[in-house]
């Protein structure tokens, strides 16, 4: 346990030192504030929108941005340290390889959670400062949005480690991670949408659609935030889908947890078998 | 537990390449030199001792544990300095050493004294990224020494060290070995290891070609001893020694078989015309190394 904490501590220390934490936090805060204040510009008015609308905008932003940031910091974690030669020395210490993976994971997750909390929190604070009235239900939805964003980050950190543990060099790891990002964030939904349009509800049942949505962590995240809370789903245009889906919050959270634990376990396993 | 490190019948293949072939030895406390050309299998053997790679055949045991099976508690009492040591450039020397001390469960404050010991005290709060090659090597040495290790694996430890630090490095090794640690050193700089290793293991293309103390290796190799001598009149010495080779400064060099050394010296010193100056030069580790490799090649 202490070993994992020591590893995580070093990861955070390095993140602070090479400005990863700063850059990520500023990026998240900047985009969150921009969405909060300018998000309604296309409708003709520039101003602060209610928190529910902010949640919809921010969770759409998260789906693109957080996986990218998570993969950016994680794809290098194992193969990069091997290439730079620092892994050789680390593994001569009394540390098991799964401890290395878990320690890095908690360190990177802490960085990501910090940036998300501060960046998105800034948006909420800005909203409060302008005197907007926000009810308790919206606050709960907002907190759930931040928590699930961190969980989505955890999924992609774990996926990045798996790639990093399997890849022969950093270039390959980076390429594969970009592929994963494109596939899960962009292509999967488009393909799914196309499939549903072509199918017209003949073959794909509601249960099959649920399964297909669970197979992509970004869709799970979308369901948690855009369909999970009544007042939010009214804005997101997902109310129809939410009404039809039989996926409760427990299932969705379990799906995100599984999407984290499984790649993380596989990453530890393949790293343990690796010779260097 | 009798031996700190024991290898028995160890073979390591990387695809078609046999990096280490059927090597067996056991190391007891003391300084041991692992000698061989590039690619002789020195680094591969150290990695097997650390459990970084697994032997294809045979078993490795380090402080009573089998590193290939993922056992790693013994590494608490082990120090390793890789050939090209590298650290995260963003952290300072002190932060880096503190991290490694914590990983080993050693008191941080005490471990930081090692920075002074390797001459990095003044640079401790600078980032490792600003360090020169020699300074990184010193930091590597400092981390290997954390917690008074019982086993030290040092892969080419003196590359990049200046002569003064080289001396203090060997002094540290001598202290540790005298304190009961097993120190395995690999190096190309054979002349450096000569009087510092109690035992020498010579590797050639993955095979162990010789193993023993320097004196034992000299006995086995039966290489001639060189006598460098200057006579009072600057002429080559008396008969019985052959023509001799001019060695500069009026001196001549003669080769004598080791078993005839004392006899020859006796007749020289007690003869009618004793030399003005006389040096007896036993075969160096370089010569022994070359001899054992030649012998292997002619046998093959």
TrEMBL record, chain A:
Keywords: Membrane, Transmembrane, Transmembrane helix. The keyword Cytoplasm does not apply. GO terms for cellular component: plasma membrane. Pfam families: ABC2_membrane_2. The keyword Chaperone does not apply. The chain crosses the membrane at residues 20-41, 53-73, 108-129, 136-161, 173-198, 252-271. GO terms for molecular function: ABC-type transporter activity. This is ABC transporter permease. It comes from Alsobacter soli. The lineage of its organism: Bacteria, Pseudomonadati, Pseudomonadota, Alphaproteobacteria, Hyphomicrobiales.
Automatic annotation (TrEMBL), chain B:
InterPro entries: AAA+_ATPase, ABC_transporter-like_ATP-bd, ABC_transporter-like_CS, ABC_Transporter_VariousFunc, P-loop_NTPase. Residues 5-230 form the ABC transporter domain. Pfam families: ABC_tran (PF00005). GO terms for molecular function: ATP binding; ATP hydrolysis activity. It comes from the Bacteria. Keywords: ATP-binding, Nucleotide-binding, Transport. Belongs to the ABC transporter superfamily. This is ABC transporter ATP-binding protein. It comes from Alsobacter soli.
